[in-house]
Design brief:
Blueprint (H helix, E strand, L loop, with lengths): L1 E3 L6 E4 L9 E9 L5 E10 L10 E9 L32 E3 L2 E3 L3 E8 L12 E14 L2 E5 L13 E4 L3 E4 L5 H11 L26 E4 L6 E4 L13 H11 L6 H9 L40 H6 L16 E7 L20 E5 L15 E6 L7 E2 L3 E2 L1
Length: about 400
């Protein structure tokens, strides 16, 4: 859809990205009410399984670029230099600035409107520019606060032995892990730009991890002019071959962060300690290849589509308390917590990107895990922040 204004204001072209959620659809995108400083971005949000509701919200975020190029930016200003994906890793997120209305957490379906202050007093885009906009929709789950959440204490592998966490407020967490198609969009929009250290550890993609069996992302050409694509049939496999820095970059690009392990465990288990869920769906039945990707369910061992087990869960009446999926098995997930063992230590969460710890906690088990390694309290505590593995992926959270 094109909106041409010949009075010297702007030429605008709207481009809507492919939707990221399994059951979310963004359609009918259009511009309206263009002025010298604001414009409305209209869209329709629909979802059928389940219907969008207050306990199954959607995270909406916007990217834009100018002209015919492919330099996608946050709406904070007329520069990509301080975006998280372009070396702004020391500052706050720049996503969704100067936007109001149906953006950020959106909890209902139907016709939506975002008002963008794109001119003076906002993003400050020069007049008579051509502007492209993408609307991204990510399925989220709302998790309730818990001022005295009992960590671990149920026999999970490397579980915290005792202690209570103060999860002071409700938060949101992605319903599914980040998938290949989501990460490919990220790669193609940032062009594999580094933070200002510009080394291989910070690369958003390591081509040596393009494993034809366990992966799903292909690269054509060379960085920084490479184009990434998803191997056919692997769009909704969780992305792998990403280290902790990549996880932080990608989630911040969305306006999210990796969850702390306190948040992750709460989302998985609901109630903490010995009374909490053993697995993301409850205590029984025991984890098996019927309900999660474990013990090499798919031979040779690899991740699987993040929707693989929803039908089985539905048929057998299983459900995560907050609506999350794939928190048991498939891939371990990076958290925002420095690795440690023993009793709970609140000071270990909130890792600094500029000075990451030697090892960072992973949660959830993977396609190769079994037994107590699949417990909701289970922890992997020997993963270097630079590790790129075929069994570790990403899930984002929003406070």
């Amino acid at each position: 859809m094109k909106l041409r204004i010949f009075a010297g204001i702007a030429l605008l072209i709207l481009v809507v990205s492919a939707c990221w959620g399994r059951d979310v659809d963004v359609s009918d995108a259009a511009f309206s009410n263009l002025t010298g400083s604001t414009i409305d971005i209209n869209y329709t949000l629909s979802r059928t399984n389940p219907t969008v509701s207050s306990d199954q919200p959607v995270w909406i975020f916007i990217k834009y670029h100018l002209g015919e190029g492919n330099t996608w930016m946050d709406t904070d200003n007329y520069s990509q230099a301080d975006d998280w994906s372009m070396g702004g890793q020391t500052g706050a997120t720049t996503v969704n600035q100067h936007l109001t209305g149906d953006v950020g957490i959106v909890a209902s379906s139907g016709s939506k409107t975002i008002t963008w202050t794109w001119g003076a007093g906002g993003t400050n885009i020069p007049q008579s520019e051509m502007v492209r906009v993408r609307i991204y929709a990510v399925e989220m789950c709302q998790v309730t606060a818990d001022a005295a959440y009992a960590m671990g204490s149920d026999g999970g592998s490397n579980a915290i032995t005792s202690g209570t966490a103060n999860i002071a407020s409700d938060f949101y967490i992605q319903k599914y892990p980040v998938t290949n198609r989501m990460y490919v969009d990220f790669l193609n929009e940032v062009g594999n730009n580094h933070d200002n250290t510009a080394d291989a550890t910070h690369d958003y993609w390591n081509t040596t991890q393009n494993d034809a069996t366990r992966g799903g992302v292909s690269i054509t050409g060379s960085v920084p002019f490479a184009v990434w694509s998803v191997v056919s049939g692997r769009d909704d496999w969780p992305v792998i071959g990403v280290n902790w820095l990549n996880a932080y970059d990608m989630t911040r690009w969305m306006g999210l962060t990796p969850p702390t392990e306190e948040q992750w465990e709460k989302a998985c288990r609901s109630v903490g300690g010995a009374d909490g869920n053993l697995y993301s769906w409850g205590d029984t039945p025991a984890a098996s290849t019927t309900y999660c990707d474990m013990s090499g369910s798919f031979s040779p061992g690899r991740p699987c589509d993040v929707n693989t087990y929803e039908t089985a869960w539905g048929n057998d009446g299983l459900a995560n308390p907050f609506g999350c999926f794939e928190m048991t098995g498939n891939v371990w997930e990076w958290t925002d917590t420095e690795a440690y063992t023993g009793a709970y230590n609140a000071s270990m969460s909130g890792v600094t990107y500029a000075s990451p710890p030697a090892n960072t906690v992973n949660r959830g088990g993977s396609w190769g895990s079994s037994g107590t390694g699949l417990y909701g309290s289970a922890r992997a505590v020997a993963s270097a922040y630079s590790l790129r593995a075929t069994y570790i992926g990403i899930r984002g959270a929003k406070n």
